[in-house]
Fold this protein.
Amino acid sequence: MFKQDVWWQRANTFEYDTLYDLAALSKIHRLKAIDQLMTWAAPIALAAPWPQAVAVGRALSVPLTEREKEEILPYLQWPRGDINKKELPLFSEIVSNGAIAG
């Protein structure tokens, strides 16, 4: 069943079904697309019938700071670049550096 643009209960969950042209977001800058998506989703989540989703709506209604935009940008590109190339130290290296008592 599809109930467009209204929260409704289905068994033990709530659903909100809507149509949104995600392809249009691919034609604009990634950060602008995130901003538009947050602006669109915030009032929907704020109108939800349970507090967890309302809390998400509050977070979505606050614009990203410049620092947050810088931090999220690597996750909005493909290939992901540096975020996938981070090499984690071996456990033995952590112990030998004194970060963990061996």
Observations:
- Residues 7-96 form one domain.
